[in-house]
Design a protein that fits this description.
single chain; alpha/beta; Maf protein; seven-stranded mixed beta sheet; 5 helices; 28% helix; globular
Length: 213
């Protein structure tokens, strides 16, 4: 796990990315990251509010993959465009995989990133450093209005710091330590994080799946 970037993603030719897609998220951090990664490949990532204002969907899936699939299919049907669904979150070993699919709502339905992170740190207060292992997980689903669907996922391992560090990123980034650098995702530049994050790895895996279509 290093700060070096992954190889370029696939082109938008046949078997690769569609030239334009709408991203099924209301999370500005996710929109920014995916937009930055795919912009280098000439893919236009459109925010959901520009296509279906007020879009939302109940995340009732039991897994990241189920929620990503649900989002992508719903938005593709409503927008008439290829739609990328993302569901991602943090799994902490000492907490049995929590917060998992409830990462964004860990401290409550309308909890902020700060509130979610504070609850996580309280729960881990007595957990020693050697047992603070964790992983960020990202599931992606790319759906077309005609029903086609391609899926992939990515994982990035690390550990949970004892206090937030850094002002970058979003979500749990300030407490997620990359073992290769010893820095939290909040301390890494956007370029460095995007080179190897769980979301980047999921996009790379989705690129490979698209190439095999």
């Amino acid at each position: 796990m290093t700060e070096t970037s992954s190889p370029p993603l696939a082109s938008v030719e046949a078997g690769g990315w569609p030239p334009r897609l709408v991203f099924a998220t209301t999370n500005p951090g996710k929109l920014r990251e995916v937009g930055e990664i795919l912009a280098a490949e000439g893919v236009a990532v459109v925010g959901v509010d520009a296509v279906v204002p007020g879009w939302s969907v109940d995340e009732v899936g039991a897994t990241f993959a189920e929620n990503a699939r649900l989002k992508a299919r719903d938005l593709a049907a409503r927008s008439g465009l290829p739609a990328l669904g993302d569901d991602s979150g943090l799994e902490v070993d000492a907490l049995g995989g929590r917060p998992g699919v409830r990462s964004a709502r860990y401290a409550g339905g309308h909890a902020t990133d700060v509130e979610n992170t504070a609850l996580l740190l309280r729960e881990l207060a007595d957990v020693p450093d050697e047992r603070r292992g964790a992983a960020f997980r990202c599931a992606l689903a790319l759906a077309w209005p005609d029903g086609r669907l391609v899926e992939a996922d990515g994982r990035c391992g690390g550990r949970i710091a004892r206090a937030p560090r850094g002002r970058g990123g979003f979500g749990y980034d300030p407490v997620f330590v990359d073992p290769a650098t010893g820095r939290t995702f909040g301390e890494l530049s956007a370029e460095a994080k995007n080179g190897f994050s769980h979301r980047r790895r999921a996009l790379d895996a989705l690129r490979r799946a698209l190439a095999m279509r």
